[in-house]
């Protein structure tokens, strides 16, 4: 397992997460995070949307449909409530799908995004402008 000392997320990715959450509200959305690790820094550069199903209670992605050679490093999904804490199902998904996970809670702003490692521990990230 590679050691990560910091996480950086492009501003465009944050904007896309916020916009998508509003567009599907009150349903949840889920996507994979695309990025790379360089010099102990994880850099999130995009979103990958896969076929799936969404409801007010959850979102499911068909991860087996991920194209080969895609550089996924984690996931993001929305909660249509003000709670951005992971559910039991979220913890299970985190442990099997990447290093970095984000949950955006209603009302879908930068401040309502929480991020977690694959074990479900809260971790900080910085937003890269540009």
Structure write-up:
- With 130 residues, the chain is an alpha/beta fold.
- It has helices at 11-24, 88-96; strands spanning 6-10, 30-38, 41-48, 52-54, 59-61, 72-79, 100-105, 113-117, 126-128.
- The chain has a seven-stranded mixed β-sheet, covered by helices on one side.
- A hairpin with a 4-residue loop joins β4 and β5.
- The longest helix is centred in the first third of the chain and has 14 residues, at 11-24.
- The N and C termini lie far apart (30 Å).
Strand and helix layout:
Blueprint: E1 6-10, H1 11-24, E2 30-38, E3 41-48, E4 52-54, E5 59-61, E6 72-79, H2 88-96, E7 100-105, E8 113-117, E9 126-128
Parallel strand pairs: 1-3, 1-9, 6-7
Antiparallel strand pairs: 2-3, 2-6, 4-5, 7-8
Note the overall shape: globular
Could you tell me the number of beta strands?
9
Elements, N to C (H/E): EHEEEEEHEEE
Provide the β-strand percentage band: 35-45%
């Amino acid at each position: 397992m590679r050691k990560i000392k910091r996480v950086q997320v492009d501003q465009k990715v944050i904007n896309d997460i916020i916009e998508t959450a509003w567009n599907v509200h009150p349903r949840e959305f889920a996507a994979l995070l695309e990025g790379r690790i360089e010099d102990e820094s994880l850099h999130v550069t995009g979103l990958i949307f896969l076929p799936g199903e969404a409801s007010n209670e959850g979102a499911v992605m068909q991860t087996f449909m991920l194209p080969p050679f895609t550089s996924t490093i984690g996931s993001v999904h929305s909660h249509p409530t003000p709670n951005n804490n992971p559910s039991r199902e979220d913890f299970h998904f985190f442990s099997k799908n990447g290093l970095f996970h984000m949950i955006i809670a209603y009302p879908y702003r930068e401040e309502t995004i929480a991020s977690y490692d694959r074990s479900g521990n809260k971790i900080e990230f910085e937003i890269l402008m540009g």
